[in-house]
């Protein structure tokens, strides 16, 4: 019975806040989320990274290990994505690959791992999220635009906070108390805002091809955890860190894929990306509780 109570404690806050955002989005279709987007990108996400990637939550070696483990997972996601996009006869596999490769490890995965495993889980979740952020602003832009540019990543505050945080981990330097307290407050404020904005976004994304979106979403939320299981088994991983890896592999497609695609890709590709994000997120409301249950049960 205790495991079910823990599962409820982990899942309910996340889904409830997403629900608040969905209600707001339905009630006020003109609700402006620009502030949330700008705050999260320029202040919130850097604060989350600084707070989570500190020596109290994770060691440098653990950061490096799970950074590489998830890099392998992304490679697995990419292979699956190419296969499924070929199967659904995509006209532009390259531009429609990002939602397969880059799951929502920040908006959804980050708070779920925090509630499931506490601050230890937060550190591993942040290592994975840092990798996904780097991918969004490098590989994600490259795939959407079909050409590489350093401009986006160099203008991202999160990029510099990742570098600073990794250096602090490497030299085993603790954060000053005032920095820790400030980033702690900003982190929780950001978690609330990005979960609410996810709910609002769900009221605005449209499904243009349900059959295709269901097939693609299956690859993301069902085969994603399968990739996680393979990595856990092959490297003989255990404990909370393995549970975090599995949870992060099970997340739906990230909304940032849609935002990046909107800036660099043709409308037809963006519509397909938006459809997959919406459907995979809806399906994940069923699959995520199952994956979290497995993680808590087998990787305590």
Question: Can you characterise this structure?
Answer:
- This protein is an all-alpha fold and 300 residues long.
- It has a single domain, classed as Na+/H+ antiporter like fold (Up-down Bundle).
- The protein is 80% helix and 0% strand.
- The chain has 13 helices and no strands.
- The chain is globular and about 50 Å long.
- It starts with a helix and ends with a helix.
- The model has no long low-confidence stretch (mean pLDDT 93).
What keywords describe this structure?
single chain; mainly alpha; globular; 300 residues; 13 helices; Na+/H+ antiporter like fold
Strand % is under 5%
List unreliable stretches of 5+ residues: none
Q: How confident overall, as mean pLDDT? A: 93
Radius of gyration over C-alpha positions, nearest whole angstrom: 18 Å
Structural class: mainly alpha
CATH topology (fold) name: Na+/H+ antiporter like fold
Helical content stands at over 70%
Give the count of structural domains: 1
Would you count the extended β strands for me? 0
- Taking the alpha carbons of the first and last residues, their distance comes to 15 Å
Net shape: globular
Largest sheet: none
Order of helices and strands: HHHHHHHHHHHHH
CATH level-two architecture: Up-down Bundle
CATH class: Mainly Alpha
The count of helical stretches stands at 13
């Amino acid at each position: 019975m205790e495991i079910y109570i823990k599962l409820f404690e982990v899942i309910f806050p996340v889904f409830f806040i997403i629900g608040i955002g969905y209600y707001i989005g339905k009630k006020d279709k003109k609700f402006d989320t620009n502030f949330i987007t700008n705050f999260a990108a320029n202040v919130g996400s850097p604060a989350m990274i600084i707070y989570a990637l500190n020596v109290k939550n994770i060691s440098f070696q653990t950061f490096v290990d799970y950074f590489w483990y998830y890099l392998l997972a992304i490679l697995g996601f990419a292979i699956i994505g190419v296969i499924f996009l070929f199967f659904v006869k995509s006209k532009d596999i390259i531009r429609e690959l990002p939602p397969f490769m880059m799951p929502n490890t920040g908006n959804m995965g980050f708070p779920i791992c925090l509630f499931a495993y506490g601050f230890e889980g937060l550190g591993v979740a942040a290592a994975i999220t840092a990798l996904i952020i780097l991918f969004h602003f490098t590989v994600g832009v490259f795939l959407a635009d079909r050409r590489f540019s350093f401009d986006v990543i160099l203008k991202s505050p999160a990029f510099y906070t990742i570098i600073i945080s990794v250096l602090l981990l490497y030299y085993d330097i603790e954060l000053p108390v005032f920095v820790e307290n400030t980033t702690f407050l900003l982190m929780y404020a950001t978690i609330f805002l990005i979960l609410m904005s996810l709910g609002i976004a769900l009221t605005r994304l449209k499904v243009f091809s349900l059959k295709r979106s269901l097939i693609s979403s299956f690859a993301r939320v069902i085969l994603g955890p399968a990739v996680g299981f393979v990595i856990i088994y092959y490297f003989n991983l255990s404990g909370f860190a393995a549970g975090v890896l599995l949870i992060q592999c099970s997340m739906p497609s990230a909304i940032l894929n849609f935002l990046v695609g909107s800036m660099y890709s043709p409308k037809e590709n963006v519509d397909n990306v938006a459809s997959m994000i919406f459907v995979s997120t809806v399906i994940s409301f069923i699959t995520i509780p199952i994956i979290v249950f497995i993680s808590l049960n087998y990787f305590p």
